[in-house]
Write the structure tokens for this entry.
Amino acid sequence: LALSSSASLAGKSEWKKGDPVPYSALTDCFEEIDKTTKRTLISSLLTTFLLKVALNPGKDGGDLLRVVYLCINRLCPDYMGIELGIGESLIIKAVAQCTGRSVQQIKSELRTVGDLGLVAQQSRGKQKTLFKTAPLTVPFVFKCLTDIAKATGNASQAKKVGIIQKLLTPCTGSETKFIVRSLEGKLRIGLAEKTLVTALAHAIVLKEVGSKKLPEGKLAEKLAKGAEAVKAVYSELPNYDLIVPALLKGGIGGLKEACKLTPGVPLKPMLAKPTKAIGEVLDRFEGKEFTCEYKYDGERAQIHMLEDGQIVVFSRNSENMSAKYPDLVESIPRCVSENVKTFVIDAEAVAYDIKEQKLLPFQQLTTRKRKDVRTEDITVRVHIFAFDLLYLNGESLLHKQLVERRQLLQESFHPVQGEFGFAKSSDGSSSEQIAEFLDESIKDGCEGLMVKRLTSDDSTYEPSRRSINWLKLKKDYLAGVGDSCDLVVVGGYYGKGKRTNTYGAFLLACYDADAEQFQTACKIGTGFSDQMLVELYNLLSPLELASGKRSDVQADMSKPPDVWFEPKVVFEVLTADLTLSPIYMAAQGLVDERGISLRFPRFIKIRDDKDADDATTSEQIAEFYEAQALASKGNRGGGGND
Ligand code: ATP
């Protein structure tokens, strides 16, 4: 890591020992980061700043944690459900009130500037300040943002506007812009979370090294090892509330002991790579041992049993779903063997017809209420199919081979008719055996198969990784791209004919996590029933942006959609194939100067278990495109179910 001279710019603001970190010190760092797209420079700018904060973490020692959260626009771990991201109109109202301008003026400027943060900053710049207020500090900003996010009830709108005013009044320079962007839920400076994790680790290493003179090679090694250690711990325990204080207390060396997988803290699930043919699966696993499991068509459920016996169910997105599944919370203890005290299992919750004893399609599951479900009102029953055991009786099993985890899973739980079972599996590895098992899975109402490495170090559980050691083989997609895409709705086109009261088509985008940008991938207007379009109108119209296109959406502006949306809703879509496009921007620069677009996209469903930044990434689109190009050259089996 080169702590370049420009990096030291990020540390130009000073504050006295024990004083709270000035908010302007953080926004100066954001400004520097915003000027570059170079990942290494962003990382070193942030490292320099975090090191300063780590050495002087404020009055109560908590400012490093607050700074970490402010860098990624969060206030607490995801699963606690306290989120920033306030509607544009409320922020406009607050900006108008505290800059003495009209809502109309702000809106019209917004249409030309396209960034409410900048408009707010410019509006503040035009104001004469009559008296000086105390400068903003990191703890004050963090507290105000938390209060806003927690405000509920009838009077909450007025309360939020009041707090925003308290925040905006003392702002100087770019502070206004970043407060507004934080309120909107995105900083848009290209600071990805993985860069933050690396910078945090580097800052702690540099703090430990202090003024010691280490040979350059040795320092580089320490930094790399530190980053690996923090990343590994974060993937098991994605909770900065625990990790940051542990780093400040015991450094990198003490982290592993202090922060371990803990029931109650959901870990990011392991993900699979798509494949297009059985031949491709066999190629990829090249004679190594693997197992095929049914790929159930339901909702992922990570189920935890805490030390006090409490059962908590988390979604794919680490959302606490226990209130949606009181029936599971109640039934799971019946399926647990006596010697089991604590566990974390990875499973699929599938809608189930108890009378006919058969699986029901995913759509049935979506008819269940999401909140405050009472067991006696439940009409759609859910069956759990467990496929992995990640933690048992105080021990993390992530590093064990799948074959061992599976055995422990089967020893620790017992199937209960209509409620709980293990994912059906077959270890047969010939092409014919896989084809037969695939057909059987479809007949039983599944989407296809998950094919997983069974033994060796390649079969450990890799949290948050889309791993080549898990392959998905979906029957429907064998002839197409290999998988569906999950794309964010960024724009809408008004309908024609009898659809004039709704949108008739949508502009969809994939996500480039490194640049924190949405890149358009296609326009979609097929696959929607009229009723669906009405529902989509109700869902999307509150997300219409008065400002027009957001600056983090990359799109061809020669034919803009009628309206732009806040990127929030995710559609799962199927495509005939992918093609290079002069109009769409997905994966631009990854395989070609042009972007990639989906041809003849068809709507499948809304993915309400995915956030906008869980959408299919630019890299995935590029991978799909390259796999398709390879298949069409005939290098791979492609297409068929061979
Ligand atoms: P991705 O991010 O990979 O697109 P996704 O949520 O869109 O994930 P799929 O592409 O359908 O899901 O494939 C993976 C999902 O399949 C898992 O997240 C899980 O919910 C589901 N699943 C069903 N059966 C299994 C199984 N036996 N093993 C692992 N996952 C399974």
User: Anything to note?
Assistant: The first strand starts at residue 271 and ends at 274. Residues 271-272, 293-296, 300, 316, 348, 387, 423, 450, 472, 486 surround adenosine-5'-triphosphate (CB under 6 Å). The longest helix spans residues 216-236. The radius of gyration is 26 Å.
